[in-house]
Amino acid sequence: MIYCVYETYVSNNWVTGHNFSKHVKRVKTEKEITNPYNDMHDLANYSRAYSEKIWICMDNDNYSDPLLTGYVGFTMIKGQEYMNGMFNYSKPEYSIADVIMLLQYTEGTGPFSDKTDQDMIILGFDFDNNGEIDIIDVQMFLQSI
Ligand SMILES: [Ca+2]
Questions:
Q1: pLDDT digit string (tens) for 9-27?
Q2: 13 and 73 co-located in one domain
Q3: From the CA of 32, how far away is ligand 1's center (Å)?
Q4: Residue 44: how many CB atoms within 10 A of its CB?
Q5: Separation between Cα atoms, residue 100 and residue 106, nearest integer Å
Q6: Both 100 and 123 in a single domain?
Q7: How many Å lie between the centroid of ligand 1 and the Cα of residue 41?
Q8: Which of 1, 50, 130, 141 could form a disulfide with 71 if both were Cys (CB 3.0 to 4.6 A apart)?
Q9: C-alpha dihedral over 104, 109, 114, 116, to 10 degrees?
Q10: Structural domain tally of the chain?
Q11: At what angle do helices 66-90 and 36-59 cross, to 10 degrees?
Q12: Are residues 84 and 109 in the same domain?
C-alpha cells in the first residue's frame, strides 16, 4: 500500500511539482559496478536508510515537508548513479577484431557476410544512425574502442 502511495507521489512530481526527472537527468556521475548483486544490495541499503523517513512523512500526509522531497530526491539520484554504472558495466567490450569484422561486412566478406544491413542495424552497428552500414560506421566503431 505504501509503495503505491510512494509511486503516486513520484509520478505526480516527475515532470511537474518537484520535477524529479529534471534532477535525475542531470546525474552524470556513476557508481562503479564491480559485482551487480552486491552493488544493488548496497543501493537497497542506501534507500532503506531513507524509507522509514519517507514512510513517516507519507503516513502523516506531510507531502509538503521539504525533507520528504530531499529523501526521495537523494534515493532517486543515488539510484541513477547506480544505473549509469550498470550501463557501463553491461556495455559490451569490443576489440580491433570486431572493427575488422565490420569492415569485412561492408566489403561483403567475413563472418557477418550473411547478415543484412537491417540485421547489423539491430545489432547496433549503425553508429551514425543513417540507416546504412558503411565505412563511416567502421570509422566511428574504431574511434569508440
Ligand atoms: Ca551508418
A1: 999 999 999 999 999 999 9
A2: yes
A3: 31
A4: 13
A5: 10
A6: yes
A7: 40
A8: 50
A9: 50
A10: 2
A11: 160
A12: no
With b for 16 or more beta-carbon neighbours within 10 A and e for fewer, the 107-131 pattern comes to eeeeebeebeeeebbeeebbbeeee
Q: What is the pLDDT of residues 43-78, one digit of tens each?
A: 999 999 999 999 999 999 888 899 999 999 999 999
Residue 73 has a CB neighbour count (10 Å cut-off) of 16
Query: Measured in angstroms, how far is the CA atom of residue 124 from the centroid of ligand 1?
Result: 10
- Cell numbers for 33: 559496478
The domain containing residue 34 runs over which residues?
Answer: 2-90
Q: Which of 72, 90, 108 is the last residue of a domain?
A: 90
Q: Which of 52, 72, 90 is the last residue of a domain?
A: 90
C-alpha 133 – ligand 1 centre gap (Å) = 4
Residues 68 and 86 in one domain: yes
| 107 & 83 share domain | no
